[in-house]
Specification:
25 helices; seven-stranded mixed sheet; about 650 residues; alpha/beta
């Protein structure tokens, strides 16, 4: 039996430029290679049981359609697995599966990854035969036993796999879900070798040494600490480390899988939280260091530190082998000063917390189960221990979001920026996206902003994956009571009310007027002038027309003038002027609206009808007696009772998949 497992790109189909090898004729540096760890683990598990297979890294190689089919013909597989770790992979899943079915009509097509939160769409709108929901190691292994006896695709035989948990398929046109997948116990979770990945890069990309192109290199302090570089990262300690590790490769590794939290915007296809065995970690670290010249590791966990004993063991192994490392995900309520101190002593350079908001109300909606104070203290501990962290990781646009909650988040972000020693230049917030398999997605369907027909859901997935043309708000689907102009205004609130709050932090923390003036000049005016020059160089160019350059020049200077007057204007006056400016700028967004025809972006979608009685309004919030009542999960449950929907069998199955958590 011939098995081929493939990584699949995310985003719109227009992006087909190879990511590796890196260079002037490949993708931009912003498109970083992805490690296909999921399919490596699945194939590694199959190999342990005597099966053989190959890895085709379509995501990083980005072949043309002709190259894709030519490469698949090199294997002529009986089974092909497509890995979609994000819902944004849907357009490529559909396109690739269609090509495969056309040229290989008798092949079995399996899809795994978080994209299977939309399993019904995959099965009815693409050429997918079977979707694997949750961890793939055990279900795929059991499927292989079925395929051994059914090498030629025969959908009538699928009733034989109804006893394998973790599968979704069509049975006489109806959705059949066998329940959530069995998971490997923690002690059996391992760190797969990259050898088979290298073999695939040689076979399908022409050179096994392309594996070295996948690793990022330490070319800046930001890359050293795996964060968008800020001034707070440029301490003497990290400048020395940068000089020591400059040019070294950055490896990625996981020490745990899953998450202890249930944030209502986050898909939880993997149930529970499991730590990998530290016994095999050391062997993997040695291999990464010797074979791939790794000097720095990004620990790609969602919840590093939740199993403190295992996390301590991992930290000690990293230090033992001279590896400096960063934790990509941790909960602020999990780590303590003592644990951070231990990690720092064992070569931790940075940690990233899921902060998301500065509003207590929105923390409840998101079900973060933490407080602003706990997060602030965790950031302060990092500052005191000289551990780098990111403070500008805010999200806006969840149900219940208002102008006031955005102001709270902006002011909170400013207090964190000041705490760690960054200037007042804020970045744009992330807009909350409804991902299938989350309470947020289910809520959007309940109130009517995402349709419930398969055509409407597919259209949403395609728009969700589309490029954003540099305007993040364009891909935002409105889940709030605000209109589009107000939503656009929130971006200005976040940036400039945040700057105003930063000035207030300076005033609050300095008793001397001279010190206040000096600090405002250094952190605010001087930085704004530097930004003005950078924006002018970036946005004004001889190759553009006079009209374009004039518009860009006006925009750049307007941005500078707003920032310049921000410290002097009262908050209410500043908000008034910001609203006027944002309304004028809103016209730039309107050019993306399709007047007649299908909308390209979620921002301009007009729902057929809205159930205002199911919306999470401020009145509903004020009536609540406990924080958990404001969790979007509770609101969805309450809405379900109001709807009192009588599900048919297929709808019951889809409801189970939708409630993956």
């Amino acid at each position: 039996m011939k098995i081929l497992l493939c990584s699949v790109p995310d985003g719109a189909l227009r992006q087909t430029v190879p990511i590796i090898p890196r260079g002037p004729h490949t993708a931009s540096p912003s498109m970083r290679p992805i490690f296909p760890l999921g399919i490596l683990r699945v194939l590694s598990s199959a190999q342990e049981h005597g099966y053989t297979g190959e890895i085709y890294d379509i995501n990083n190689l980005r072949p043309t359609d002709d190259e894709l089919i030519k490469n698949i013909k090199k294997v002529n597989p009986d089974v092909i697995g497509l890995s979609g770790p994000l819902s944004h992979c849907y357009p490529f899943i559909k396109h690739i599966s269609k090509l495969v079915r056309k040229h290989f009509p008798d092949i079995w097509i399996i899809v795994g990854g978080n994209v299977t939160g939309s399993a019904h769409i995959l099965l009815k709108k693409t050429e997918t035969d079977i979707a694997v929901v949750g961890d793939g190691e055990i279900p795929f292994l059991k499927l292989l036993k079925f395929f051994e006896d059914n090498l030629k695709r025969d959908l009538e035989k699928l009733d034989q796999i109804k006893n394998i948990p973790g599968l979704v398929f069509l049975d006489e046109g109806k959705i059949c879900f066998t329940g959530f997948a069995e998971q490997l116990p923690a002690h059996k979770m391992n760190f797969p070798s990259y050898d088979i990945w290298e073999d695939g890069l040689e076979k399908f990309g022409g050179d096994r040494n392309l594996i070295y192109e996948v690793f990022n290199k330490v070319n800046s302090i930001g890359e050293l600490v795996s964060l968008a570089e800020e001034r707070s990262h440029q301490t003497e300690e990290f400048q020395k480390l940068f000089q020591k590790y400059k040019g070294k490769r950055i490896g990625r590794i996981q020490t745990s899988k899953g998450c202890v939290a249930k944030c209502t915007f986050c898909q939880r296809a993997t149930h529970g939280y499991r730590s990998f065995g530290s016994e095999t970690l050391e062997e993997r670290v040695i291999e990464l260091k010797k074979k791939y010249d790794i000097g720095v590791l990004s620990v790609d966990d969602e919840n590093f530190g939740s199993d403190q004993k295992k996390s301590y063991e991992c930290a000690k192994i990293f230090k033992k082998h001279g590896i400096f490392w960063n934790a990509e995900g941790a909960r602020a309520s999990t780590v303590t000063y003592e644990s951070l101190k231990f990690y720092k002593e064992n070569n931790m350079m940075a940690v990233r917390f899921g902060i998301e908001t500065g509003s207590a109300k929105m923390l409840e909606v998101m079900e973060k189960k933490t407080t602003k104070e706990k997060v602030y203290n965790a950031i302060k501990n990092c500052k005191d221990l000289n551990i780098n962290t990111a403070v500008e990781v805010m999200m806006i646009g969840m149900p219940g979001e208002t102008r006031d909650t955005v102001i709270e988040t902006a002011e909170y972000a400013a207090s964190l920026r000041y705490l760690v020693g960054n200037d007042w230049n804020t970045s744009y917030p992330v807009w909350a996206a409804a991902i299938p398999g989350t309470p947020l997605y289910e809520y959007c369907q309940q109130i009517g902003v995402i349709g419930t027909s398969i055509e409407e859901e597919e259209d949403y997935l395609i728009r969700l994956a589309d490029d954003m043309e540099g305007e993040g708000i364009l891909n935002y689907l409105n889940k709030t009571d605000a209109d589009r102009k107000e939503l656009n205004f929130w971006v200005y609130i976040y940036r400039y009310i945040g700057k105003k709050a930063y000035v207030n932090e300076i005033i609050k923390n300095n008793k001397s007027i001279i010190k206040i003036i000096k600090e405002i000049y250094k952190e605010c005016f001087k930085e704004s002038y530097r930004t003005l020059k950078a924006d002018f160089v970036r946005r004004v160019d001889k190759k553009y027309s006079f009209k374009q350059n004039l518009q860009q020049t006006i925009s750049v200077f307007t941005k500078f003038l707003i920032a310049f007057f921000t410290p002097f204007l009262p908050k209410k006056v500043l908000l008034y002027f910001l609203k006027k400016i944002s309304d004028i700028k809103y016209k730039n967004l309107e050019r993306f609206r399709v007047k007649n025809g299908r909308q390209r972006y979620n921002f301009f979608i007009e729902p057929k009808s809205i159930r205002n009685d199911l919306k999470f309004t401020n009145e509903r919030y004020l009536k609540s007696k406990r924080p958990i009542e404001n969790s979007l999960r509770s609101i969805v449950k309450e809405n379900s009772a109001i709807l009192a929907t009588q599900f048919n069998e297929e709808e019951k199955i889809l409801d189970k998949i939708a409630k993956m958590q």
